[in-house]
Amino acid sequence: MQRLILAATLVCFAAGGAFAHGDDSHFTQRQEVTVRTTKVNGNVYLLQGRGGNVGAIVGMDGILIIDDDYKVVSEKLREALKALGASSPKFILNTHWHGDHTEGNFAFGGESVIVAHENVRKRMLNPPVLFGQTTPAYPSIALPVITYAESITLHFDGDEIRAVHYPSGHTDGDTVVFFKKANVVHLGDDFFAGQFPFVDLDSGGSVQGLINNVGHLITQIPADAKLIPGHGPLSTLDDLKSFRQTLIETSQIVQDAMKKKQTLDEIKKAGLPEKYKEWGSGFIKTDSWIEIVYRSYSKK
Prior knowledge:
It contains ten helices and twelve strands. The protein is an alpha/beta fold. The protein has one domain (2-298): 4-Layer Sandwich (Metallo-beta-lactamase, Chain A). Strands 1-2-3-4-5-6-7 form a seven-stranded mixed sheet. It has a five-stranded mixed sheet with strand order 8-9-10-11-12, with no helix packed on it. Helix 7 (207-220) packs antiparallel against helix 8 and helix 8 (237-259) crosses helix 10 (286-298).
């Protein structure tokens, strides 16, 4: 029942493109898709289309990208990459399996080497139900061909690019990518800048795991690093600290209510303090976040 409630509260988000790939019919009357390019630091760029944020490093070796948005964005993403120097990347790093970060694999997979954590490939081959929708398995052309259990390092365009797995956070296949020379970190959906995150409990995600992972990352990231979140604007380490503190405080409110034997409906009705209002203005609304927290801690 709780899964059905959560799916219902997120139905508007799912109708807008959700995280999973599949039928593109809802895009037939879509607004014009655009991709905005922002230089981050050194030769690293942020590209923002319809889905998750795309990172790119550009140089003599070509282009490597982190995630690749929805299928519907692929043509515009290709144009944006061409403006940077090449129409297709040599490498694609997927931070997790959700379609708003990986559907571009369908367009670029035949031209690029796709790299991801081993759980990402497993999820793509047998996707969990997401927002009440059954997701088709990814075709071979869109699958990662290089996988890793803990981390992998690529030496590309004069930088050391390290992809590190952080378990049981947003999903069970999350990767954070560190550009050592450029001093940039792409956190995928372990970081939703200024908004409540989606935690995919059915893909091995955990609210407490996300809090723990972000806490560890804060100790690893240089104070002056530029951060690319999975969703939201270019950020700083202070923004990441604010994100984690909000997760801690709001999840504690829900846990305290659970200890008092309050029902999910009662906790939703009480809501969260006014200071968290803006955090619920993204595609994960306050009610949805409360339910994610409730479900996550109910699993203990």
